[in-house]
């Protein structure tokens, strides 16, 4: 009997150039500095978060988005480029006409920042329904001192593998570091492992979602 890997899911993992990471650092650190007085050690900026470092009453929490609220233009440009590259490489959605007419500034993303700095800072398994692609960029990761923890966990979409939790192929652990950028389909169930108890430092990541309606706009 021959086993085949049917409907494999492409996941793109890239380590950004150090010079580019330094440029993004300046933008993210400016955002963090503004928000340091507004949030606790663990929290979220953007995407309808519970607190808002903004005094403009016209900005609703449900509509408050990271990229539209702060100058993170370098990171936004990089992430949009990675989405377009993913679409071109792994799908048939971009024909020559659409590809030549793409304007990154016209593509809107959902975006938010997560900061975690304790051993209870993991995220339970979840997915983003009715979305298209996810991207996560890691701005800061702690020194794990050789211990396991803080990994991004992607779960198999194969129901047989997912049902048998003891099967090692049911999930993939991805170790991340500062400057790591990952793109994967939004329907993939994913989680974040908590940091080890004896590790000091923060894990700060910026997540974005590309929605289906943004892809449709390319064909209008």
Give an overview of the whole structure.
With 220 residues, this protein is α+β, with helices and mostly antiparallel strands. The chain has a single domain, classed as q2cbj1_9rhob like domain (Jelly Rolls, Sandwich), CATH 2.60.120.620. The chain has six helices and ten strands, in the order βαβαααββββαββββα. The protein has helices at 18-35, 66-69, 73-90, 96-101, 159-163, 212-217; strands at residues 12-15, 43-45, 110-116, 123-126, 133-140, 152-155, 171-174, 180-185, 190-192, 203-210. The strands form two sheets. The chain has a six-stranded antiparallel sheet. Strands 4-9-6-7 form a four-stranded antiparallel sheet, with no helix packed on it. It is globular, with a radius of gyration of 18 Å. Mean pLDDT is 75; it is low at 48-63.
Summarize this, please?
With 220 residues, the chain is α+β, with helices and mostly antiparallel strands. The protein contains six helices and ten strands; from the N terminus they run βαβαααββββαββββα. The longest helix has 18 residues, at 18-35.
Name a few traits of the molecule.
four-stranded antiparallel sheet, 6 helices, globular, Jelly Rolls, 220 residues, six-stranded antiparallel sheet, 10 strands, alpha+beta, 23% strand
Record field, number of beta strands = 10
- Any idea of the CATH topology? Jelly Rolls
Query: Number of helical segments?
Result: 6
Distance between the termini: 47 Å
Q: Strand portion, in percent?
A: 15-25%
Low-confidence stretches: 48-63
| Element-by-element helix/strand order | EHEHHHEEEEHEEEEH
